[in-house]
Amino acid sequence: MKPGSVVIAAALAQRPGAGGHTWFALQYLLGFRALGWEVTLVDRLDAEMPRDGLGCLAEAMERFGLADDWSVLLPEGESAGLSRSEVERRLSSSDLLLNAMGYLDDEELLALPPLRVFLDVDPGFGQMWRQLGLADPFAGHDRFVSVGLNLGSPGCGVPDCGLDWIATLPPVALEHWPLAGGGTAFTSVATWRGPYGPVEYEGRTYGLRVHEFRRFLPLPELVPADFELALAIDPGDDADRERLTLSGWKLLNPVAVAADPDAYRRFIQGSAAELTVAKGMYVETESGWFSDRSACYLASGKPVVAQETGFGAHLPTGDGLLSFSTLKEAVEAVERVRGDRGRHARAAREIAEEYLGAERVLSRLVEEIGAVRAHG
How many helices (H) and strands (E) does the chain have? Predict the structure, then answer.
């Protein structure tokens, strides 16, 4: 595959203090750059959005050698980083725009790239919104990519909306996530509810992480291991916070332990393993969603114990990556990791190298999209 030029649009500046959210975009930027591609990040802030995230984004881009390759579009034609005119130039000369959740919605800018690719990282929500007539995030795009690995497959409850979906695993820039030893706790970084509410669709209600997690509250009481969650939880959920704490979960402030990309990486690499519960939407639809955060754990040689969403049809499970659907299965998986951490750590890194390395994932994705054009 010959190198090209890609513009990646994502919402980062509105999420200061969320190092994992920044890493989501960095995996694509660093992965494409490692393949020899020219990369640009485009973000936007509307008038009602605070601007305190601009400094964090600028620092992160400079930290990873991307100081000249980002822009946050502001109201009235202003921008931070690259100017709007330079963004226009880069979009016009690119091979594709990779638009995470359709966040870049400026019609003038969307008309410039030769190929507009919608990157779906929350499978189920956008598709059901469209079918219900609430919103159409896919409008104006030419290709449709999802981390819902089962979209369009029999048994998947996510409507395909009549679109041809290309499945992709989350990429991880392996050179930036080396093997790391040590750690004693099963950890994760998560939001309790997230930005979207439950969705009612065809007689069913598809829920959030909070609704799934309540099923697994007793886990720390059933297995002698430490469990730590860097959890963004609203004060209105104090009752859930108390139940978590009483059940043995140690709750950490994600802004304190994972605010920027380096802190987020230190937190993950200081863990023994990950224990992660998925959003109800992903579980109930069997979408095949797999977390970009879990990819970072695996690359670091940290075993992942993850709630099954259907990803087991696409990734090897049993060693390094262990899936569960019930509380009993979660207990058994944690005990297996504790029984032979070395074997599971080695298997975790092997899975990352074979399936999730950014250069491998993005090369395959570009080929399936059919994205590279000849540049004169």
Answer: 15, 16
Q: Which pTM value belongs to this model?
A: 0.96
Query: CATH number of 5-171+357-369: 1.10.10, 3.30.40, 1.20.120, 3.40.50?
Result: 3.40.50
Sequence-separated (6 or more) residues with CB below 8 Å from residue 86: 71
Helix intervals (H) in the chain:
19-34, 54-63, 84-93, 107-110, 125-132, 209-213, 219-222, 238-246, 254-257, 261-269, 280-285, 292-299, 327-339, 341-351, 358-369
Chain segment 315-362, per-residue pLDDT in tens: 999 999 999 999 999 999 999 999 999 999 999 999 999 999 999 999
Enumerate the domain spans of the chain: 5-171+357-369, 175-356
Phi, psi of 257 (to 5 degrees): -115, -10
Average pLDDT in the 350-376 region?
Answer: 86
Exposure b/e, 56-90, CB count within 10 A at least 16 = b = bbbebbeebebeebbbbbbeeeebbbbebeebeeb
CATH architecture classification, 175-356: 3-Layer(aba) Sandwich (3.40)
Dihedral in degrees, nearest 10, Cα atoms 248, 252, 257, 261: 90
Query: pLDDT digit string (tens) for 236-295?
Result: 899 999 999 999 999 999 999 999 999 999 999 999 999 999 999 999 999 999 999 999
Look at residue 194 in the predicted model and tell me its pLDDT.
Answer: 81
Classify strands 70-73 and 79-81 as parallel, antiparallel or unpaired.
antiparallel
How long a stretch of residues is the chain? Answer: 376
Domains 5-171+357-369 and 175-356 in one fold: yes
d(CA 33, CA 339): 39
Residue 21 token pair: 């959210």
CA angle 239, 240, 241 (to 5 degrees): 90
All residues at 6 or more sequence positions from 173 whose CB lies less than 8 Å from its CB, including other chains: 26, 27, 30, 31, 34, 358
Sign of CA dihedral 353, 257, 67, 63: negative
Q: CA triplet 195, 200, 205: central angle to 5 degrees?
A: 90
- CA atoms within 13 A of residue 67's CA, in its CB half-sphere: 4
